[in-house]
Amino acid sequence: MQLDRVAILGAGAWGTALAQAAAIAGREVTLVGRDPMVIAEINELRVNSAHLPGVTLLDTISASTSLPDADLVVLAVPAQATRFAVAALDGRLDGKPVVLTAKGLEHGTLARQSQVLAEAAPGAIPYVLSGPSFAADVASGRPTAVTLAGDHPDRTSAVAAALAGPTFRLYAADDRLGVELAGALKNVYAIGCGAVDGAGLGASARSALLARAFAELTRLVVRMGGGASTLTGLAGLGDLTLSCTSTQSRNYRYGVSLGRGESPGSDLAEGALTAPVARQLANQVRIDAPLIDAVNLLIDGNTSIADIVAGLMSRPLKREED
What is residue 8's three-state secondary structure? Predict the structure, then answer.
């Protein structure tokens, strides 16, 4: 399985970081973007100052406004843009392995990213990359470990090996559905944890919310067909913990702003877009998801974080394993 030429669609921070990681792994990389100024800067100066400042890109990375012929394609666009980006390629993904990196559920359809890919490019072969990772860490060569899930074990391992380098470790997995759901839903819980910190409710409250979020996430993912063991790995507990505790997380920062009663501004937070979809999914499969409900209330501005926490604390007592 030849995987020497990698095309990464999306020249934002995450796409650029993955391009750097693939180049470090020895691949020939083309970073595909829409902004001619960003493309020119990457090709001429080896930097992407608008999206990932302070990182010098390797010479084996080139940039283009069009998708080249490649052995492996990585989609690094926001979740709500995946369908449009794939449709614009007009069948050029047929037969190609495509790694999906967006962590979100599509509005309206409630679709996971691989479901969107299957509808927009049915001939593509889907893989899902998720786990505790920030673009700045990956691009700077700080040790990072993530999960790559696919449907064919040998092929998944080959794709993982093609992207792995000395500081970017990929663990191959089979539970694509569980990895996708965990990656999308953890962003919702990160908003809740950020709001708790923003409101100054204390580390004990945040830790309790994080633990109950893990329990709620597990119930929902397992009910929808994902594996419980996925939730204890990098794509589950690892990513949930990172997103719920670090100021590098956009979703956490979004929650902090809400907890302080401030406007989150224009900073993209996939969790804010995924939250209403997650609520619909939970209702659809009849899973009690009070934390997802609470985050939706907070985002909608219908109540304060203090009132939400008071409501959660007054729920009927039950056994922890329930």
Answer: strand
Determine the Cα–Cα distance for residues 73 and 163; give it in Å rounded to an integer.
Answer: 11
Please compute the mean of the pLDDT values over residues 184-189 and round it to a whole number: 97
| 119-150: pLDDT as tens digits | 999 999 999 999 999 999 999 999 999 999 99
Full set of structural domains in the chain with CATH: 5-174 (3.40.50.720), 183-313 (1.10.1040.10)
Question: Catalytic residue among 96, 103, 186, 318, which?
Answer: 186
Dig out the tokens for 204 from the structure.
Answer: 């004990």
Backbone angles phi, psi at 86, to 5 degrees: -70, -45
Q: What is the pLDDT of residues 243-288, one digit of tens each?
A: 999 999 999 999 999 999 988 876 678 999 999 999 999 999 999 9
Is the confidence at residue 86, as pLDDT, over 80?
Answer: yes
Residue 317: the pLDDT is 66
Q: At how many degrees (to 10) do helices 270-284 and 250-259 cross?
A: 90
How far is residue 11's CA from residue 171's CA, in Å, rounded to a whole number?
25
CB 75 within 8 A of CB 18: no
Provide the β-strand partners of residue 302.
none
Q: Convert 196-233 to b/e letters by CB count within 10 Å (16 or more is b).
A: bbbbebeeebbebbbebbbebbbbbbbebebbeebbeb
CA distance 146 to 309: 32
Is there a catalytic annotation at residue 186? yes
The amino acid sitting at 125 is I
